[in-house]
Amino acid sequence: MSIEILTLIMLGSMIVLLIIGLPLAFVTGIIAFGFALFLYGPLALPLIASRIYGFVSVYALIAVPMFVFMASVLERSGIARDLFGAMHVLAGNLRGGLAIQTMAVAVLMAAMTGIIGGEIVLLGLVALPQMLRLNYDRNLAIGTVCAGGGLGTMIPPSIVLIFYGLTAQVSIGDLFLATVIPGLLLAGIYIAYILIRCYINPDLGPPAPVENRDLSYSEKMKMVRDILLPVLVVVMVLGSIYGGIASVSEAAGMGVIGVIFCTWIRKELKWQLIRESLHQTMMTCGVILWLVFGATALIGVYNLMGGIDFVKSLMTGLPFPPIVILLIMMAILLVLGFFIDWIGIMMLTMPVFVPIVVEMGYDPVWFGILFCMNMQISYLSPPFGPAAFYLKGVAPPEITLQDIYNSLWPFMALQILALAIVMMFPQLALWLPSLAYPN
User: Fold this and answer.
1) N or C: where does the chain have the smaller number of CB atoms within 10 Å of the terminal CB?
2) pTM for this prediction
3) Is-cis flag, bond preceding 433, omega within 30?
4) 257-266, long-range: CB within 8 Å, 24+ apart, which pairs?
5) Burial of 169 (0-12, 13-18, 19+ CB in 10 A)
């Protein structure tokens, strides 16, 4: 049976199993083992097991539960809530100031945790009610929370970049450096959009009331502490990586120590908080690992069938310049993002796409940043759009899921704009790595 027919059967089987409601991790695992047994017999199963073991035994993977644990502690402590309150005062009488400082808090939280779920929940609990209370435009407030919460994909230490580095065999440190400017660029585009809209129509984002900004000296000093503690965590994590003091995994451990220390300083460190955070970390990492197991097995079997070489020859044989092939890849990732989580998309596509990208002469670090920016869009896009579901879980009951999706379209357009800018100007991503590691 030809590889073309086998590829169609594999894709058709995946679509059918997903439609009937099986989780992606089980779908990929079932298809992998089914094709392995059918084509090669039981002797192929140890090869799948060794491939999975080879991936999950990588030392850098230790960073993932560390960053998830940091996010869990932040979610349960008052650090993020007080950080928001402190920056709310700093926003002053700026139009749209509350939305802008929500975006600033999102950047800081992303730099502490590297994941998006906890960010959106926290901002939905703290920032969204405040903006609605001050009569902010509801669509602007919802879009700000979801788009800002999704920055955990782009701002280092990003778990998405850690998995991309392991999958594409690219330096995670290079990826962290490469994503700094694109991540800040995206946040800057969001802020510019909020400012422009609020200055055109001040009713969309009125400034904070004067009484909220008229504080005593002691209250202001407390707010300075509330800002300095999260900044300390960011410096411990990113400073140790960029300063060459620690690897990504070691820096993640430093971040855990920093968050626990900050929680202790605030007298919020309790056994119940640690226990609940550890439980959530185990649950989250368990889901991620099952997805990794299934996708790694499927790609391993497909590679054994010669499928990756087939796709590579198919795409490089197209009568298009490399940039068009790159755009086709971006379109495929965009469509997959409507239905599949980022870890599944990455594990299924990157082993195929990255060798093609390298053969076309593009930098895999740059492509990794493009992938993360594409996943930003997938976090907001219906019908999957996990950001919308995270926010719906904590939003006021009068806000429907349809209301949330209607609020996200302008921010998705801004994400596409940022993606296009980084595609046109690769040095936005490659400049910092070139400074750190000159040829």
Assistant:
1) C
2) 0.80
3) no
4) 258/232, 258/233, 259/70, 259/73, 259/74, 259/77, 259/79, 259/112, 259/233, 260/73, 262/77, 262/79, 262/229, 262/230, 262/232, 262/233, 263/73, 263/77, 263/79, 265/229, 266/77, 266/78, 266/79, 266/229
5) exposed
Q: How high is the pLDDT of residue 182?
A: 93
Per-residue pLDDT tens for 76-94? 777 766 666 666 565 556 7
Q: What is the model's pLDDT at position 135?
A: 83
How high is the mean pLDDT of the chain?
81
DSSP alpha helix (H) spans, 360-393 = 364-380, 386-392
Domains of the chain, by residue range, sit at 58-269+306-436
For the record, the structure tokens of 306 come out as 């010669």
**DSSP states of 48-71:** HHHHHHHHHT-GGGGHHHHHHHHH
**210 pLDDT exceeds 70?**
no
Q: How far apart are CA 131 and CA 96, in angstroms?
A: 9
Lookup: tokens for 285: 């990492």
Alpha carbon 98 to chain centroid distance?
A: 23
